[in-house]
Design a protein that fits this description.
This protein is mostly helical and 224 residues long. The protein is 21% helix and 4% strand. The termini are far apart.
Amino acid sequence: MKKSALLVLIIGASILIVGIAYAGVSGSKHDFSIGGTSGFQADTETEVCIFCHTPHGASDVPLWNKTTNSTGYTMYNSTVSSTLDATVPTAPTGVSLLCMSCHDGVSAINVVVNYGPNGPISMPAASDQLGDLSYPPSRNPNLTKDLSNDHPVSFIFDTNLITLDAAGGPAQLKLPVAPLKLFVGKLECATCHDPHEEGKSTGTTPFLRMSNAGSDMCLTCHIK
């Protein structure tokens, strides 16, 4: 009886989480369905979540519905900045690599692992990649595979790094606290960004986990 009640509770919580995520994505810049307003709209596809997630046969966690490619990246690393003490991999990993399956600017938004019952997703050829459109410099989602001018990602962020960065002097870094988060001990794109909440109503666009007014989000990790 207890197991049954626990199972019902887990299922109910899962449905609630999915519902909240859907509500945050629907109508946002991550809504590529025919009903979206992001500038990248499917011709007929009405499903919102399908562009990123699939309930079955996913290529990666969390139920990822796109293939990932870790080749051809230029990362922000110690050759770019002599003050960087973290060890940055040659390509994004984890959730950051998932983000790049659209934000590299060349991967087709409408190409997914598992299509819905209506088959392949059709989108206008001139707007099926983030690199197809022009954007203001401060709000450009087309990161390309050159990440050398972006905040480093996919590195282990722990007390060892904080000590190494201090190099015998005062600490310059501190571990992030909620609402920021690490992923398997690493700082990733989703440390600062929540892909399910654009932040229009809270002033945390674009998809920030918290407001950066007064550099508050930056100062969650950086001591200045």
